[in-house]
Give the backbone structure.
Amino acid sequence: MRLILKTMVSNPAEVPFLRMMFREAEGIVDQIIVTEFDETHSGLPRDFIFGQFVDGFAQEFPQLTYLQGSQIEGVIRNAKTSDQHHHNETLMRGWFAKQVPLKSGDIIFATDADEVLYSKTYRWVKENFSRRSYGVRFRLHQTFYRPNFLWVDKEFIAPVALKFGRYSKTYPNNWRYQGSTLPGFWGVHFSWCIPVSEMVAKVQNYSHAAEHGHLRGRAVFEEARKKKIFPFDDRDFRLTEISLDSPILPTSLSTVLDEMSPEVRGSV
């Protein structure tokens, strides 16, 4: 049974979170797969950005495989509707499955770049995932705007560890929201912990662009972060600042803070 960590990258602000993710998995996973595409979930063109970091990452993480998807078949260009955006998202999430040789018994940890599983999570799967298991789903704490702004009473359940042979039968599979949800918390979702300029771009390009694309310009996001409010809807949204020593945060966070822009890390 091999353990494979698969993730995606789409902007430079995610690079420190990738490094944190990989350091948590270091010494446990057998392969790390990073995919990147020259189109957004909205089907708009974008430039590859991770290539400039690959050599440095490969020195620290020799099990890294970096895959560039260029003009992949099936993408809906200039997508307008939510269904079209999610079609593109699923296609990009599942594309890796036909690009690298994987075995039916391989366990795929699938996360987004800002979803960091604890080191103990990988160890638990290695020690407890049986041959009869098909997959598990992880509950994460969620921070917002800054790595240590914890969203109170919020849990995020999306990343998974799935047996490749079971879930690769469907293509494309989004490798997400599947498997039995484990009790407890297994990592942190560092949501919207990016510069405002990237927020402005993201809201036009990601899979929820149809719902949130009307939020344009820097002012709305600058105000939201300053006042700690949620700009997308009126759900319960309370942020509390936690210590960097909090057991909620991955231990490797402190090793990548210097890589984050001051705008993202704030006063920590």
Notes: The radius of gyration is 18 Å. Residues 82-94 form the longest helix (13 residues). The CA atoms of residues 80 and 165 lie 34 Å apart. Strands lie at 3-8, 31-37, 64-69, 107-110, 115-117, 135-144, 149-163, 180-181, 187-191, 239-241.
